[in-house]
């Protein structure tokens, strides 16, 4: 009875959905089912025994695995006629700088092992892949031994400059951006109004210039920083969107990536800061002399730690959380199978993940926007010309001044 | 936190930093600079076109105002000319009237003079004819009177008598 009811509801929803524009549907199906596909594909690497995800623990472990960087570009896995799981994907180059100098090999040498069981010898050193981190075994060690804190005791991490999945994502997006925007740039040589895809890109460029760079940095100086802001905006946005595709990229959810982005902003606003900016940090005018050193400490912490941290943590946390939520909702299909029947749990999972995927599409843009906007704001504060006198207390303080003082 | 730090990959950080730096430089060189320049050029072009259109509009307005002014002037001129013509006509009529009057006066005067002269001549002629007639009558009377000698003597006597008395 329950099953019939569930399938009825499902059919009604399918009929409703069928009325939506076909492209819209295709995109959504691509995004939701794609993520589901990713979920299955990775489960193999994680649990070598059966290659399927059944329990809450396996799912948690899988999600944890997915949001990390990977040395493999895994596409899908299947169980062959012989009952052995086969993985299909692209091996990526592993480039490490160990104690015996550089070493490079393809990640296929690990045979999809991420439990530190397969030892690869290269460049005079032995390497294992433990949870997608490359460890170099100490001299004389044959297998990796895990200590009490889940860290290996007889291995250390070399400098890992591998072309990981995230690096592939960065390269792909970088090349795409170069192709798209340089072709847009070339179009202007022939015509004033671009055609085709350039017509889509041009308003976005104008948007970043007019809504992010110009108002936050100021009319006089925005031009110098617009290149950086445009690059960062499109880089983050496209990578965020790439994270929603079935390829399972999670580039902007990597701390290393967001940290690098935030440090770029930090370096830019630190080195373009004018006299006023440093004056306000180190020796705040308009306050009693005794408080000035205290304020200087607070301002220095704000400028060098809080601002970049707010940038890097916000982007990292939002994107990672989005990935975790989507995958968790897809996992409802498995975890609530018992309580809701397979059809019910599938329906619930589909509806919820559809909804969250839509929100994630928005978040993808929003996070790119916020990162760029805050970067522009920080740069704008560093280069702002203060023409008003801080030594005199204003009777009616301008709201704009208050804002400028706070941020 | 420990987990997060453990997940932080220095290798990826280095790769990202290098790649982002290269990407920014390439994008600025090959994309953003030409794109922003073209956009600026286009916006300047649009601004210029708008300004030119505004200028043209003002010019047109001025031109229209000029036209209006010229038209007004022409109208005024026409009115003036009409007025003048009217004046000239009135003047001409008045002049003609005056001329005609004086001419008529003159003619009348001449006529009167001629009449007067004719009259005088007529009177003179009449006088002379009357005198002649009188003479003829007198002649005839005298002739008749003198035909009778007694009477003549009588008359002479009487005359003489009158003359002596004087």
TrEMBL record, chain A:
<comment type="function">
    <text>Key component of the proton channel; it plays a direct role in the translocation of protons across the membrane.</text>
</comment>
<keyword id="KW-0812">Transmembrane</keyword>
<feature type="transmembrane region" description="Helical">
    <location>
        <begin position="225"/>
        <end position="245"/>
    </location>
</feature>
<protein>
    <recommendedName>
        <fullName>ATP synthase subunit a</fullName>
    </recommendedName>
</protein>
<dbReference type="InterPro" id="IPR000568">
    <property type="entry name" value="ATP_synth_F0_asu"/>
</dbReference>
<keyword id="KW-0813">Transport</keyword>
<feature type="transmembrane region" description="Helical">
    <location>
        <begin position="348"/>
        <end position="371"/>
    </location>
</feature>
<feature type="transmembrane region" description="Helical">
    <location>
        <begin position="251"/>
        <end position="269"/>
    </location>
</feature>
<feature type="transmembrane region" description="Helical">
    <location>
        <begin position="315"/>
        <end position="336"/>
    </location>
</feature>
<keyword id="KW-0472">Membrane</keyword>
<dbReference type="InterPro" id="IPR035908">
    <property type="entry name" value="F0_ATP_A_sf"/>
</dbReference>
<dbReference type="GO" id="GO:0005886">
    <property type="term" value="C:plasma membrane"/>
</dbReference>
<feature type="transmembrane region" description="Helical">
    <location>
        <begin position="289"/>
        <end position="309"/>
    </location>
</feature>
<comment type="similarity">
    <text>Belongs to the ATPase A chain family.</text>
</comment>
<keyword id="KW-0375">Hydrogen ion transport</keyword>
<dbReference type="GO" id="GO:0046933">
    <property type="term" value="F:proton-transporting ATP synthase activity, rotational mechanism"/>
</dbReference>
<keyword id="KW-0138">CF(0)</keyword>
<dbReference type="GO" id="GO:0045259">
    <property type="term" value="C:proton-transporting ATP synthase complex"/>
</dbReference>
<keyword id="KW-0406">Ion transport</keyword>
<dbReference type="Pfam" id="PF00119">
    <property type="entry name" value="ATP-synt_A"/>
</dbReference>
<keyword id="KW-1133">Transmembrane helix</keyword>
<keyword id="KW-0066">ATP synthesis</keyword>
From TrEMBL, chain B:
<keyword id="KW-0813">Transport</keyword>
<dbReference type="GO" id="GO:0046933">
    <property type="term" value="F:proton-transporting ATP synthase activity, rotational mechanism"/>
</dbReference>
<comment type="function">
    <text>Component of the F(0) channel, it forms part of the peripheral stalk, linking F(1) to F(0). The b'-subunit is a diverged and duplicated form of b found in plants and photosynthetic bacteria.</text>
</comment>
<dbReference type="InterPro" id="IPR028987">
    <property type="entry name" value="ATP_synth_B-like_membr_sf"/>
</dbReference>
<dbReference type="GO" id="GO:0045259">
    <property type="term" value="C:proton-transporting ATP synthase complex"/>
</dbReference>
<protein>
    <recommendedName>
        <fullName>ATP synthase subunit b</fullName>
    </recommendedName>
</protein>
<keyword id="KW-0406">Ion transport</keyword>
<dbReference type="InterPro" id="IPR005864">
    <property type="entry name" value="ATP_synth_F0_bsu_bac"/>
</dbReference>
<dbReference type="InterPro" id="IPR050059">
    <property type="entry name" value="ATP_synthase_B_chain"/>
</dbReference>
<keyword id="KW-0175">Coiled coil</keyword>
<dbReference type="GO" id="GO:0005886">
    <property type="term" value="C:plasma membrane"/>
</dbReference>
<keyword id="KW-0066">ATP synthesis</keyword>
<comment type="subunit">
    <text>F-type ATPases have 2 components, F(1) - the catalytic core - and F(0) - the membrane proton channel. F(1) has five subunits: alpha(3), beta(3), gamma(1), delta(1), epsilon(1). F(0) has four main subunits: a(1), b(2) and c(10-14). The alpha and beta chains form an alternating ring which encloses part of the gamma chain. F(1) is attached to F(0) by a central stalk formed by the gamma and epsilon chains, while a peripheral stalk is formed by the delta and b chains.</text>
</comment>
<keyword id="KW-0375">Hydrogen ion transport</keyword>
<keyword id="KW-1003">Cell membrane</keyword>
<feature type="transmembrane region" description="Helical">
    <location>
        <begin position="12"/>
        <end position="32"/>
    </location>
</feature>
<dbReference type="InterPro" id="IPR002146">
    <property type="entry name" value="ATP_synth_b/b'su_bac/chlpt"/>
</dbReference>
<dbReference type="GO" id="GO:0012505">
    <property type="term" value="C:endomembrane system"/>
</dbReference>
<keyword id="KW-0812">Transmembrane</keyword>
<dbReference type="GO" id="GO:0046961">
    <property type="term" value="F:proton-transporting ATPase activity, rotational mechanism"/>
</dbReference>
<keyword id="KW-0472">Membrane</keyword>
<feature type="coiled-coil region">
    <location>
        <begin position="46"/>
        <end position="143"/>
    </location>
</feature>
């Amino acid at each position: 009875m329950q099953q019939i009811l569930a399938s009825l509801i499902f059919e009604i929803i399918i009929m409703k959905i069928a009325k939506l524009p076909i492209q819209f549907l295709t995109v959504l199906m691509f995004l939701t089912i794609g993520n589901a596909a990713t979920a299955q594909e990775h489960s193999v690497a994680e649990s070598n025994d059966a290659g399927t995800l059944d329990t809450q623990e396996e799912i948690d472990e899988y999600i944890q695995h997915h949001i990390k960087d990977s040395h493999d570009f895994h596409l899908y896995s299947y169980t062959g006629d012989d009952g052995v799981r086969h993985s299909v994907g692209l091996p990526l180059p592993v480039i490490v700088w160990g104690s015996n100098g550089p070493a490079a090999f393809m990640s296929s040498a690990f045979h999809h092992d991420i439990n530190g069981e397969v030892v690869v010898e290269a460049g005079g050193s032995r390497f294992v892949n433990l949870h997608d981190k490359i460890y170099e075994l100490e001299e004389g060690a044959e297998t990796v031994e895990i200590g009490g804190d889940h860290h290996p005791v007889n291995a250390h991490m070399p400098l890992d400059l591998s072309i990981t999945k995230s690096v592939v994502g960065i390269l792909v997006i970088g090349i795409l951006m170069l192709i798209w925007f340089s072709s847009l740039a070339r179009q202007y040589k022939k015509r004033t109004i671009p055609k085709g895809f350039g017509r889509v890109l041009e308003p976005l460029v104008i948007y970043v210039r007019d809504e992010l760079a110009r108002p936050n940095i100021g009319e006089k100086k925005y031009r110098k920083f617009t290149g950086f802001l445009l690059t960062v905006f499109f880089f983050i946005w496209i990578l965020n969107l790439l994270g929603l595709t079935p390829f399972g990229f999670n580039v902007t959810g990597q701390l290393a990536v967001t940290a690098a982005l935030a440090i770029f902003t930090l370096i830019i606003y630190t080195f373009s800061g004018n006299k006023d900016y440093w004056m306000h940090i180190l020796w705040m005018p308009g306050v009693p002399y005794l408080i000035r050193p205290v304020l200087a400490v607070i301002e220095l912490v704000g400028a060098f730690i809080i601002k970049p941290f707010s940038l890097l943590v916000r982007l990292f946390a939002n994107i990672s959380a989005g990935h975790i939520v989507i995958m968790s909702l897809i996992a409802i299909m498995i975890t609530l199978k018992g309580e809701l029947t397979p059809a019910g749990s599938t329906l619930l999972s589909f509806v919820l993940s559809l909804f969250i995927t839509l929100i994630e599409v928005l978040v993808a843009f929003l996070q790119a926007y916020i990162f760029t906007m805050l970067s522009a704001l920080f740069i704008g504060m560093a280069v702002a010309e203060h023409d008003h006198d801080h030594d005199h207390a204003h009777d009616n303080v301008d709201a704009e001044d208050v804002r400028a003082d706070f941020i | 936190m420990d987990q997060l730090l453990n997940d932080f990959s220095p290798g990826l950080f280095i790769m990202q930093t290098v790649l982002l730096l290269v990407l920014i430089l390439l994008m600025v060189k090959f994309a953003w600079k030409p794109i922003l320049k073209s956009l600026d050029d286009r916006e300047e072009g649009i601004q210029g076109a708008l300004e030119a259109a505004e200028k043209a509009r003002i010019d047109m307005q001025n031109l229209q105002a000029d036209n209006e002014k010229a038209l007004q002037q022409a109208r005024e001129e026409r009115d003036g000319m009409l007025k003048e013509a009217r004046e000239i006509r009135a003047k001409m009529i008045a002049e003609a009237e005056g001329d005609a009057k004086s001419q008529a006066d003159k003619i009348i005067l001449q006529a009167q003079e001629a009449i007067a002269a004719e009259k005088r001549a007529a009177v003179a002629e009449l006088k002379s004819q009357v005198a002649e007639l009188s003479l003829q009558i007198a002649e005839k009377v005298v002739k008749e009177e003198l035909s009778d000698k007694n009477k003549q003597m009588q008359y002479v006597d009487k005359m003489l008598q009158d003359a002596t008395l004087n």
